[in-house]
Amino acid sequence: MRSMTRAVVMGLVTGLLACDVRVDVGDGGMTSGSGGGAAGAGAGGGAQSGGGSTGGGGATLLLGCNAAMPCPSGQFCFNGLCALGCQSNANCAADQYCDTMFDRLCHNKVVPTCTATSNTCSSTQRCFNGFCSTPPPQTAMQCNPKGVGSGMDGCDRNSLCIEDDSPAKTPRCYTFPACAADKTCPVGLGGAVCNDGLVPNKAHICLLNACRTVANCPANWACFRFTANDVVGVCSSKGTGAPCSSAADCTSGNCSALVPGLPGLCL
What we know:
Blueprint: H1 2-17, E1 75-78, E2 81-84, E3 96-98, E4 106-108, E5 126-128, E6 131-133, E7 159-163, E8 171-175, E9 192-194, E10 206-208, E11 210-211, E12 222-224, E13 233-236, E14 243-244, E15 255-256, E16 264-266
């Protein structure tokens, strides 16, 4: 479990430090307000603005429903009233699926991506490593990064506790987008893998910069494991400062390890 924690946290921290953006990627769970649904604006419709997992806009919409008058996408009929959530894919938009294992909300069948120059994210989000992200509130409660590997970090099922890039390295709950319907995630700019049994007590979310194989990483990158027994690794660019255990892990062919037996850094 310790190796799991190290690999997941190192991968996420590497991604965070690569950019001065603090991430809270959309399409996490149920949040209030627009922009808290599926990542990317206008994806999948839904009853509230922001599209996606239809997490914004209150808990229950008191709309009457029956077989002849079904509920809008992202809601289901419960005792004659439309309730937020879903019981099957039939309650979701055509480009979404119902997550019946965790939050019972509608999520995008294909995880939306973005670029730094595109305008596909909502006004409250930023593009981080190819995913739309929302900076966490400054008043957010702190969590425990040491509990990430066990899924007992004080965050909800759609979030992981990561230290931010401030001088104080304050730990915050960062929400990550839901995986696609087939439990895959786009590679993005730094790699990503679906949390399909990797971190317990967490939903099927995309773990940025993490990998099971090199296929989860950008072209010409490597999936680096800190130990041979690690279930998950981190996507490495093999460039200067990337983790390494041998010369083959570095584009330069120069791996510097200060402590024998421990991973070093590419020079």
